[in-house]
Write the structure tokens for this entry.
Amino acid sequence: MKTHPASSDQLAPPVTRRQSLRHLAPWLGWGVLGLLVLLAALGPLYLSAFDLVLAFTLFNYMTMAQSWNLLGGYGGQFSLGHSLFVGAGSYTIAVLLLHSGLPLLLDLLLSGLLAAALATLAALLLMRLREAYFSIGSLGLAMAALTWMLNWSFTGATSGLNLPPAATLDYSTLYYLALGLLVVTTLTIVLLVRSPFGLRLMAIRDDQEAAAELGVNSFPVKLVTFAISAFFVGLAGGLIALNKLEIEPDSAFSMNWVITMIIITIIGGIATSTGPLLGAVVFFTLQQVLQNSQALSSLLTGLLLILIIRLAPEGLWPLALKLGRRLGEGLLSRFAHSKQAETVLSAQEAVGGRSRLGER
């Protein structure tokens, strides 16, 4: 006796369902991102003054890590000198506010531009170097800049500078400036990486000789990348100065800045656009929970870094994507098999019922 086959939808293989999930995943991601941006935009409506300061610091961490990731992750240039650009941005806006009389937002923009100009000059010396030589060279420049600022009387030498009263901004304004800078930085880097320029940059990172054979000139690509990375770090440095209202060389040019950028990027996922954001949240949360025990905070951060390097060298974000994909595929596979089993069972019952009717 003939049986009616189940519909194609009922017997759809898991592969088809997985493909549907993959098409749906980007839309879900954009939806979650839009919700997070909306919540962040409304932050001053429900956050206290203390929470706004914490959010300001977190956004700056994210911005600096994203900027370093452009050069160190996508570009393969492991810089140890980005503290130079934090300090340059901080001192630029302080000097301009004290002596120029220009609008504050223009001063902030110029702090990023000066950092980019310094990076362009540094690139003339550093971009011919590779790997460890580049890292050591960038560290040397940052240390040289710190030594210069400690002895430069125009910027207060070891005493630093106090920003004028006109530089005082309320917490909500600082919050929105940091959030806006983070959004612009992230969008710029994402678009840049997905452009032909980004493809050339990653080709140079993967194999500079092979890229050169294909006609890719590495020097201008590296130089522009270095300048863009320094520009956003310089802007973040300017915001840090506006928040503190006083700066001095040891803190503005501290190695802790670049170490923080590197740790955040490695924890979240190097050469990913979401990794630095996730890494900043993990790092900052650990800092705040253990703020009364600095030694324990440093110890646990170091242990976390070692575990990630050993167990998940790509970072937490790629690991989360893999686990989520496996979990989703497993659930879809179980769902598909259960639907197929139900269909087969229904068909068998139908056949059995018709056989009994035939016998009667």
User: Anything to note?
Assistant: Residues 51-258 form one domain.
